[in-house]
Design brief:
The complex is a heterodimer.
Chain A: H1 2-8, H2 11-22, H3 24-33, E1 56-60, H4 64-75, E2 79-83, E3 96-97, E4 101-103, E5 109-111, E6 119-120, E7 127-128, H5 132-140, E8 145-148, E9 156-158, E10 168-169, H6 170-190, H7 200-214, H8 226-232, E11 234-236, E12 247-248, H9 254-260, E13 278-281, H10 286-295, E14 300-301, E15 304-312, E16 315-322, E17 330-334, E18 336-339, H11 343-346, H12 355-362, E19 366-367, E20 369-376, H13 380-383, E21 390-394, E22 400-403, E23 414-422, H14 423-430, H15 434-445, H16 451-455, E24 456-463, E25 474-475, H17 479-490, E26 496-498, H18 510-530
Parallel strand pairs in A: 1-2, 1-18, 2-14, 9-21, 18-26
Antiparallel strand pairs in A: 3-6, 4-5, 7-13, 8-13, 9-10, 11-12, 15-16, 16-17, 19-25, 20-23, 20-24, 21-22
Chain B: H1 2-14, H2 17-25, H3 36-48, E1 55-56, E2 60-61, H4 74-82, H5 96-107, H6 120-132
Helix pairs in contact in B: 3-5, 4-6, 5-6
Classes of the chains: A alpha+beta, B mainly alpha.
Chain lengths: 531, 133
């Protein structure tokens, strides 16, 4: 019965019918069972009600965690103040624009020369559709979002050791890999090799699904023809009038595909955090931090370097230096403290917390990451290669070439992400000067885009271990470290609680910072009400 | 890259389970550099800086130039292998020879003039001690 209904009605009609017949509780249950209204980690904006009795909270750091905390606590009636080391809000939520000056540890200074409207997001650059906290605050702060393209079928996958080093279109490798897998599975199915796993009835269904999924022909083969070209594209596309007949394209051989290793890159858009839809703020990721900072401008004190955090029965006293005006150290006091300083730095600041939290602070290493932005005189990837946004993957140390997901078809300059690295390659990029990083990116990139040489204009790089206010990209948790230290890191210690991506199960993502802040302030609020 | 992947596999085989797990946090991987100088310039100077004088921002990277804590050779050896605070462990991605080479390089440059050197056997023993802890 249900199957018949589903075949003849849309899902929406079905829900509507169930709702009408049986009331909304049944409808919710039906929707949940079809995964339309499941639970998420984000419980909505916190509703901190009750008398906070004039309590004050000192927040250290104006990144996403600090500003989320300040915004919600202020709304609930707390007196809030933020101390921020930098002269801007946002923390790792950051974009570099033309006219910006960035000095990394060691003193190398970059005068960013990007054209107006062009930018590099040194840190986060995308917002998954299920990062509800981030999306909530973007909406609340009127930060305009636009699509972030993760998968571009016309971008490249590249290996220096396959196809003579010639980059391959993602589309070709993806379609061919999937086609051959489907063909092999169909062959096994027809040879009854899967009879134990698949019933006789399901066998026919499986075969039909493999034909569709893999673009197989009527003989269940992935081969040159209409079907495969319908996925991988044609040698010459179908056209109009008298020159309209298409020429199908020749699939790459199975062995070549397997040995190329390029299949490693084709699942990049399948992960929960990288599947469509993804978003980016119009004008750069840093727009979120800017908007949040404007909202909280009365409570953020910039250029404040925290040098001591002390708590006692009366509250928390934070000693800091004004890095702009100098002078003797100053102090700020409050009943409570939310500290969002990365533990890479907090582990160097005296703080009187219990041994378990101190051990947690002292035992979390920070992972490396480097991003390089390259400005070119024209958008050759669009003009010459029809690549509009998305990502090319390479086995070279730069790892990634990210194409801008905005300003399509504009005739001016464009900024590419020329490198986005983790692991050993990121440490090696960090050890270079900014000029060397750009030179390396050009050397790698030219193997994919020969236009690099002619069209390069200017560049900028950020190596996260050389960023003065983080000393690394993000907390590098392992299962073992989490088992030992995570709970202690997140627990309220007297009057102090920590927040930030390092206090989350989604490290390095801004959503982790937001969710950790919301969790911390809920617990803090309960303590205040109970006091 | 293949060389790197192979090197990383080798390093992971040598490392303890805990170290291997930690390495995964950084994406694993190994380093092609073999001499102390190449290792220092290719990796360490990212934080400790080309002149080994460290750097100061909101936090600081310690100077290795003229660093008295380098007097006991086991100390830098341990820090490289196991990491310290925010400094990641390089034990999982360095071979014993690479650990020895970079420690010996730092202890004989940047105003450091220690004459005793770290051997591959020292590093092996240290790894065993760390793993057995």
């Amino acid at each position: 019965m249900a199957d018949e209904i589903r075949q003849s009605m849309s899902r929406r009609d079905l829900f509507s019918l169930i709702g009408t017949l049986a009331g909304s509780a049944v409808m919710y249950e039906a929707m949940s069972s079809l995964a339309y209204a499941g639970e998420s980690g984000y419980a909505g904006p916190p509703n901190l009600t009750g008398d906070v009795k004039g309590a004050s909270v000192l927040i250290l750091g104006s990144g996403m965690a600090g500003m989320t905390s300040a915004y919600e606590l202020r709304k609930a009636g707390y007196k809030v103040q933020i101390l921020e080391y930098q002269d801007r809000p946002g923390g790792r939520n950051w974009s570099l624009y033309g006219g910006d000056i960035y000095t990394e540890l060691g003193g190398a200074t970059q005068n960013i020369q990007f054209d107006k409207g062009l930018y590099l997001n040194p840190g986060p650059w995308r917002l998954p559709y299920h990062h509800y906290g981030m999306l909530h605050y973007c909406k609340l702060l009127n930060v305009a979002l636009e699509p972030f393209v993760q998968v571009n079928y016309n971008a490249y996958v590249h290996s220096t050791k396959a196809f003579g080093g010639k980059p391959q279109r993602y589309r070709h490798v993806q379609a061919d890999y999937q086609g051959y897998v489907a063909e092999l599975l169909a062959k096994s199915t027809r040879l009854s090799a899967l009879d134990q796993a698949v019933t006789k009835e399901d066998r026919e269904i499986l075969l039909e699904s493999l034909r569709r999924w893999g673009a197989l022909d009527k003989n269940y083969q992935y081969t040159l023809g209409e079907e495969s070209s319908g996925r991988r594209g044609y040698e010459s596309d179908p056209g109009g009038g008298l020159t309209s007949a298409p020429t199908p394209s020749q699939p790459i051989g199975l062995q070549e595909i397997l040995q190329s290793g390029l299949w490693r890159s084709i699942a990049a858009g399948s992960g929960y955090e990288t599947q469509q839809s993804l978003f980016q703020p119009v004008g750069g990721m840093g727009m979120v931090g800017k908007a949040f900072g404007a909202e909280l401008k009365e409570v953020i004190q910039y250029n404040s370097k925290v040098i001591d955090i002390h708590q006692d029965a009366g509250g928390v006293t934070v000693t800091y230096q004004d890095t702009l005006k100098g002078g003797p150290p100053r102090q700020a006091k409050a009943d409570w403290c939310i500290c969002t300083i990365p533990v890479s730095i907090l582990s160097q600041i005296p703080i009187n917390v219990g041994a378990p939290m101190q051990a947690a602070i002292d035992n979390l290493p920070y992972s490396p990451s480097v991003k390089v932005g390259l400005q070119f005189k024209r958008r050759f990837w669009e003009e010459d290669e029809n690549i509009y946004g998305g990502i090319t993957y390479t086995d070279q140390p730069n790892s990634t070439i990210g194409y801008p997901n905005s300003g399509y078809f504009s005739s001016g300059k464009g900024v590419l992400l020329g490198a986005y690295t983790f692991g050993p390659a990121a440490f090696e990029f960090t050890a270079m000067s900014p000029q060397e990083r750009i030179a390396k990116c050009l050397e790698y990139g030219v193997k994919i885009h020969p236009q690099y040489i002619e069209e390069f204009d200017t560049g900028a790089s950020v190596a996260w271990h050389r960023v003065p206010w983080t000393l690394g990209c993000a907390g590098a948790w392992t299962e073992e470290l989490r088992a030992q230290h995570y709970d202690a890191l997140c627990a309220i210690d007297g009057k102090i609680v920590l927040a930030g991506e390092h206090c989350s199960r989604i490290p390095a993502w801004q959503e982790g910072a937001v969710l950790s802040a919301l969790d911390a302030i809920r617990r803090l609020h309960q303590r205040v009400l109970a006091a | 890259m293949l060389r790197r992947v192979l090197a990383s596999g080798l390093a992971l085989c040598l490392a303890s389970g805990a170290q291997a797990a930690l390495a995964q946090g950084f994406g694993g991987g190994g380093y092609p550099q073999q001499t102390g100088e190449a290792l220092y310039q290719g990796i360490c100077q990212g934080c400790h800086m080309p002149d080994a004088k460290g750097a100061v921002g909101a936090g600081a990277y310690p100077a290795l130039a003229g660093d008295k804590r380098l007097a006991a050779k086991a100390y830098p050896e341990l820090v490289v292998v196991r990491g310290q605070k925010a400094m990641p462990a390089f034990g999982p991605s360095f071979s014993d020879a690479q650990v020895a080479a970079v420690v010996n390089y730092v202890r004989t440059h940047f105003g450091n003039t220690y004459t005793d050197s770290v051997t591959v056997e020292d590093v092996k023993a240290l790894r065993a001690a760390v793993a057995g802890k």
